[in-house]
Design a protein that fits this description.
By secondary structure, the chain is an all-alpha fold. The protein has one domain: Rhopdopsin 7-helix transmembrane proteins. It contains ten helices and three strands. It has helices spanning about 25-50, 60-85, 95-130, 135, 140-165, 180-185, 195-225, 230-260, 270-290, 295-310, and strands at about 10-15, 95, 175. It has a three-stranded mixed β-sheet with strand order 2-1-3. Helix 2 packs antiparallel against helix 3 (about 95-130) and helix 8 runs antiparallel to helix 9. The protein is globular and about 65 Å long. It is found in: Cell membrane. It is a multi-pass membrane protein. InterPro entries: GPCR_Rhodpsn, GPCR_Rhodpsn_7TM, Olfact_rcpt. Keywords: Cell membrane, G-protein coupled receptor, Membrane, Olfaction, Receptor, Sensory transduction, Transducer, Transmembrane, Transmembrane helix.
C-alpha cells in the first residue's frame, strides 16, 4: 500500500477583504474606529448595567450585559486581524491561532444566538404574562440561562473546531477569507470534506433554525398580545421594548444564514456578509439599545450626574 507523506502546515495566510490598494489606509482607519467604538460602547453598557442598582438585578439588563461581553469578544478576535490585512506585507496566522480564532468565533457566535433566543423569551413573558413575570423570570434564573448559553456555545464551538482541524492540511495555506472560518478553511484540507460540510450544514442549520423559530414563535405571541392592548400609547411602549431586539436579530441572522446554509457557494458576497456578525453587529448593538431604551439612557444620566456631583465635592 502506497504511503502518502503530508507536509503539515504550521501557518495560514488570510487574504482579507478584496479592496482597491488606494483604499487601504481608509479601510484601516475605518475598522480601527469601528473596533474602538465597539469596545467603548459595549463597555459603557456593561458598566452602566453593573453600576446602576435599578438595572443590574433585572433579567433584561443581565442579558444585555452578557450580550455586551460577547460583542466585545467577537470584535476582538476578528477586527484586529482584519485590520492587519490593510497594512503592507504578508502577515500569516499560526496554525494554533487559526484553530483558536475558529473556536472562539463559533463559541461566542452560537452563545449569542442562544442569548437572542433567551431575550425573546424574556420579552414574551414580560408582555404576555406581566403579572407572573417576576416569578417566572428572576435574576437568578436569568443568570443560569446566560451560563447555559455560554456552556452550549462552548460545546458547539469545540465540535466545529475539532471536526475542522482533525483533517490533514498539507498546502496550499492561503485562506481566501479575512478570518479562519469553516467554509474557507475546509477548502485547503487534503482529504474528503463531504462529512464535514454535511455536519457543519446540519449542526449550524439546526442551531440557527431552532433559535430563529423560537424567536419567531415568541414574537407571534407578543404581537397578538400587543394588538389586544386598547391604548395607542400602551401599544407603542410595548413595541418599543421589542424593537431593538428585532432589529439586532435581523442583522445577525440574515448574514449567518447566507454564509452557512449555502455550503456549495463560493460567492465574494460571503465575505461582505460575514462583516455584519463579526464587525458591524457588535458595533450597532450598543447604539441600538441605548438609543431605543429609555431606561438605559436614564441610567447613563444618573451615572454621569453622580460622577459630576462627586467631582464637585
Amino acid at each position: 500500500m502506497e504511503r502518502i507523506n503530508y507536509t503539515v502546515l504550521t501557518e495560514f495566510i488570510l487574504t482579507g477583504v478584496p479592496h482597491p490598494p488606494r483604499l487601504r489606509t481608509f479601510l484601516f482607519v475605518f475598522f480601527l474606529l469601528i473596533y474602538i467604538l465597539t469596545q467603548l460602547g459595549n463597555a459603557l453598557i456593561l458598566i452602566t448595567v453593573c453600576a446602576d442598582t435599578q438595572l443590574h438585578a433585572r433579567p433584561m439588563y443581565i442579558f444585555l450585559g452578557a450580550l455586551s461581553v460577547i460583542d466585545m469578544g467577537i470584535s476582538t478576535i476578528i477586527v484586529p486581524r482584519l485590520m492587519m490585512n490593510f497594512t503592507p506585507g504578508i502577515k500569516p496566522i499560526p496554525f494554533g491561532g487559526c484553530v483558536a480564532q475558529l473556536y472562539f468565533y463559533h463559541f461566542l457566535g452560537s452563545s449569542q444566538c442562544f442569548l437572542y433566543t433567551t431575550m425573546a423569551y424574556d420579552r414574551y413573558l414580560a408582555i404576555c404574562q406581566p403579572l407572573r413575570y417576576p416569578v417566572l423570570m428572576s435574576a437568578k434564573l436569568s443568570i443560569l440561562l446566560v451560563a447555559g448559553a455560554w456552556v452550549a456555545g462552548s460545546i458547539h464551538g469545540a465540535i466545529q473546531a475539532i471536526l475542522t482541524f482533525r483533517l490533514p492540511y498539507c498546502g496550499p495555506n492561503q485562506v481566501d477569507y479575512f478570518f479562519c472560518d469553516i467554509p474557507a478553511v475546509l477548502k485547503l484540507a487534503c482529504a474528503d470534506t463531504t462529512v464535514n460540510e454535511l455536519v457543519t450544514f446540519v449542526d449550524i442549520g439546526v442551531v440557527v433554525a431552532s433559535c430563529f423559530s423560537l424567536i419567531l414563535l415568541s414574537y407571534i405571541y407578543i404581537i397578538r398580545a400587543i394588538l389586544r392592548i386598547r391604548t395607542a400609547d400602551g401599544r407603542r411602549r410595548a413595541f418599543s421594548t421589542c424593537g431593538a431586539h428585532v432589529t439586532i436579530v435581523t442583522v445577525y441572522y440574515v448574514p449567518c444564514a447566507f454564509i452557512y446554509l449555502r455550503p456549495d457557494s463560493h460567492s465574494i458576497l460571503d465575505g461582505a456578509a460575514a462583516l455584519f456578525p463579526t464587525a458591524i453587529t457588535p458595533f450597532l448593538n450598543p447604539l441600538i439599545y441605548t438609543l431605543r431604551n429609555q431606561e438605559v439612557k436614564l441610567a447613563l444620566r444618573r451615572m454621569v450626574g453622580s460622577q459630576s456631583t462627586k467631582s464637585e465635592v
